[in-house]
Amino acid sequence: MDYEVTIGIPVYNVxxxxxxxxxxxxxxxxxxxxxxxxxxxxxxxxxxxxxxxQKIHPRGKDIRIVCQPQNGGLGRARNRIIEECRTxxxxxxxxxxxxxxxxxxxxxxxxxxxxxxxxxxSFERIEEFDDSVVHRESSYAFxxxxxxxxxxxxxxxxxxxxxxxxxxxxxxxxIYLKNHIRHxxxxxxEDFSTTIDLPTYVTRVVMLPxxxxxxxxxxxxxxxxxxxxxxxxxxxxxxxxxxxxxxxDSDRVKPFPYFHKRMYKVMMTHFYMACSIxxxxxxxxxxxxxxxxxxVLRSPLSLSETLHLKGWxxxxxxxxxxxxxxxFLSVALIRLIGKRKHLI
Length: 344
What we know:
This protein has helices spanning 18-26, 46-56, 73-84, 103-113, 150-157, 173-178, 190-195, 233-248, 259-279, 290-296, 303-307, 313-322, 327-340, and strands at 5-11, 33-39, 63-67, 89-92, 98-99, 118-129, 132-138, 143-145, 169-172, 205-217, 231-232, 284-285. The protein is an alpha/beta fold. Helix 1 (18-26) links the parallel strand 1 (5-11) and strand 2. The longest helix is centred in the C-terminal third of the chain and has 21 residues, at 259-279. The model has no long low-confidence stretch (mean pLDDT 92).
């Protein structure tokens, strides 16, 4: 059977949440969907539940299961989904989240209407800690883009303009394939290493105010340090290593007119990470040295390259200095700036 859209779902040890996700996915009002489930070799009953849906649900015939040879993590799982996708459009969905019943309908209709390379929906963040549940909506203003570099320039001009997530946008599969876009083979922040440069590959883009995705946040994730009593240093280091891969990918976008903005956004992300380390330094074990914190801010550009950027020279130069000055001084300045910005 030919489908228009693939919903790609990597599954690994999410037995507690997978029914909620599958119910939301299979309840889509849009009919022409293949549900591509990537079995990443977990050790719980997640895949048993998926196979149950495959057998008894009215849309069970639309579920295709692909198995990894061994657990490879989210980055490799998403890449396998891209390679297995047979449809014009692809939508990523995490197995512990959920989507609105009309998510694919809304995104697909706008993709067709505007011949869009990619259509972004808005989302709701649901924070589940202890006995409390907090809902926070994050809604984009309706907007369309059609000029070369227009969307990328907007993305890099405003740090919070676009959510750094692979989920909650409908994209033409050929964008991934023809540009050889793949996620880094890491488990931490694999989204960031892809989505930071995805805007450089697309021209026709639509952003919608409709809430189409429900992102569930709970204990045990790197985005919720404040709710934890202990953080292992290796966990943060893996995130830093994933972020560093973005620095290494700078050469391709150097000729573009927005490179100086992209550079600033990348380095500001590293600044926020350094602030997080300082904010939670009492519960991180073993601790980070001043040199390690300073090195988070080390720029991939030389001093000469930084001073010859097409714009935002002083902003980028300030971040460059934080990455080369003596560690104790760098950390003192990061701490001072972080406190003034209420990041620490």
